[in-house]
Design brief:
Elements (H helix, E strand, L loop, with lengths): L9 E7 L3 H12 L4 E5 L13 E2 L1 H9 L3 H7 L10 E4 L6 E5 L18 E2 L2 H11 L4 E3 L1 E9 L2 E8 L4 E11 L6 H5 L4 E16 L3 H4 L7 E4 L6 E5 L5 E7 L8 H9 L6 E15 L7 E3 L5 E2 L7 H20 L10 H21 L3 H4 L8 H23 L2 H4 L37 E5 L4 H13 L3 E5 L5 E4 L5 E5 L5 H5 L5
Helix pairs in contact: 1-4, 1-8, 8-9
């Protein structure tokens, strides 16, 4: 089929970039019945740069909301039951120093805290699942080269791999085009922040027989605290494929085979599949939008990978801007609602950057002690002190549910003064999450015999807002937004829905 013919002349929303955040934005829009066009230069997803390894409990809840959580889990090479532990060792084949359990919300199976536990899964797999879900919107082999905004819309210039140019007219644009974002430059936004001075070197490798030789059992991460070569190692599957981060290693000095063998603690058989030098960045865009162009994911923020927040923060961006764009495009919310996107999401990104930077302050090089590599007596003398330092400095990295599940939009102009948090979760029946009862748009939960229920239902009818009601006898009334955050709770809902839609801005 002719590539040019596949690209429409106009679309309600054009999404620049088809990584996980751009695709999530398209899936969210489709969840609300809004068409989009995702412009992505990569024809296929590469597994040689696995990027994020953890999809958070919150992201998995949102994937459940789209009907995709079970697909991700079924395809994940490591089942959620595989491990929830981080093990700290002298080498993969050496001594164990200590371990931390309950990491990354992987232990939340069946917990009232969340509808879904976290999931260890390479980012490319999540991206492929999202590509399938957004197939109607996705156009690969094209990239956004520029855009021009006017009061009525945005004219977007896209270029194919073969050099063909097209102009697409969109009512709105969401820029999910990463660190070198064309959309960020187009609206005059810029990054603020800093870059870490320490180099890192990622390696994806195959190591036949390594797993069978290891004495430490399953783990999410193995932290190698060898002063001569500190780093992290983990499994990409239960066959022979692994990833590692050699910390403090510059690309020009890297011998990938030797690095892997140093981390393993033996001259194991190694096949190098890919390498990727990088430095951590703590960057936040000074603004998230113009009138019709919005930034999400790495185009808006970057943070160190420690804590597993990465693209998960971008998934939250996608849902927030997605439901708001849908509400405006369907005509039941004013365009003023869109201003709340930056108000709500930029502080979350700032908090995430701060948390990830704090996690990065103490890494394997800072925890390593030469005595750990000595004889058994020397190791046992120093091990308790190192173990204590690990537990003291790394606990927040692996146990961050207050940030992952507990972030709030309190103070946002579109939520009531005592609202903004994610709706507290529970299981009304075996296997049925409270979230499963919510509608795709707004939902009213609580005792529907209370007078306020009828008031809110009438408000929704007058404003044309889709509202699902969920009768919970004896419980107070709670108005829940499409993103599962509480917009209002109480007895008197006068004006609650108007405020939640941005009418009063």
């Amino acid at each position: 089929m002719d590539l040019v013919a596949q690209v429409p002349d106009s679309v309600p929303v054009l999404i620049a970039g088809g990584g996980p955040v751009g695709l999530a934005t398209a899936v969210e829009l489709a969840h609300h019945g809004v068409r989009s066009l995702v412009v992505e230069p990569r024809e296929s997803v590469s597994w040689l740069r696995p990027r994020a390894k953890t999809t958070s409990a919150r992201s998995m809840e949102l994937l459940r909301r789209w009907g995709l959580a079970e697909t991700v889990r079924a395809r994940a090479p490591l089942a959620v039951s595989w491990s929830d532990e981080a093990v700290f060792v002298t080498s993969l084949l050496g001594r164990e120093i200590t371990r931390i359990g309950g990491c990354f919300g992987l232990d939340l199976v069946g917990s009232d805290l969340a509808a879904e536990p976290g999931q260890q899964v390479p980012q490319p797999l999540v991206e492929e699942v999202l590509r399938e879900a957004a197939a109607d919107a996705l156009r690969t082999g094209w990239e956004v080269a520029g855009l021009r905004e006017d009061p009525d819309g945005v004219s977007v210039r896209i270029v194919s791999a073969g050099g063909e140019e097209r102009e697409v007219r969109a009512q709105y644009v969401v820029g999910c085009d990463g660190p070198r974002s064309v959309t960020r430059a187009a609206i005059g936004a810029r990054y603020e922040g800093r870059q870490d001075a320490r180099p890192n070197f990622n390696i994806v490798f195959r190591a036949p027989g390594l797993a069978e030789r290891m004495p430490h059992g399953p783990a999410v991460h193995y932290w190698v605290l060898n002063p001569a070569q500190p780093g992290l190692v983990g499994r990409l599957d239960l066959k022979e494929t692994w990833w590692c981060i050699a910390q403090g290693v510059r690309a020009e000095d890297a011998d990938p085979v030797r690095l892997v063998r140093n981390l393993a603690g033996a001259d194991i058989e190694v096949e190098i599949l890919a390498t990727d030098p990088w430095t951590a960045r703590m960057l936040l865009a000074d603004r998230y939008s113009s009138e019709r162009v919005f930034l999400a994911g790495d185009a808006a923020h970057q943070n160190p990978p420690y804590g597993g927040h990465g693209f998960n923060t971008g998934i939250g961006d996608a849902v927030n801007i997605g439901w708001k764009l849908a509400a405006v495009l369907h005509g039941w919310a004013p365009a003023t609602l869109l201003a709340s996107y930056e108000t709500e999401r930029r502080p979350i990104a700032a908090d995430t950057i701060e948390a990830a930077a704090a996690n990065m302050a103490t890494l394997a090089p800072e925890l390593a002690d030469p005595a750990l590599m000595g004889d058994e007596a020397a190791f046992e003398r120093v091990r308790p002190a190192v173990a204590e330092a690990v537990l003291r400095t790394k606990d927040s990295e692996f146990h961050s549910l207050d940030l992952v599940l507990g972030y709030t939009y309190a103070g946002s102009p579109i939520v009531a003064p005592d609202a903004g948090e994610r709706l507290p979760h529970r299981w009304p029946a075996p296997g049925e999450s409270l979230y499963d009862r919510l509608g795709p748009d707004f939902s009213l939960l609580g005792d529907l015999s209370l007078p306020g229920a009828g008031v809110l239902v009438e408000q929704a009818r007058e404003l044309g807002v889709p509202l699902r009601t969920v009768d919970l006898p004896g419980e107070p009334l709670t108005l829940v937004r499409p993103d599962q955050h509480v917009a209002w709770r109480g007895d008197d809902p006068s004006g609650a829905l108007r405020q939640a839609l941005g009418h009063d801005r």
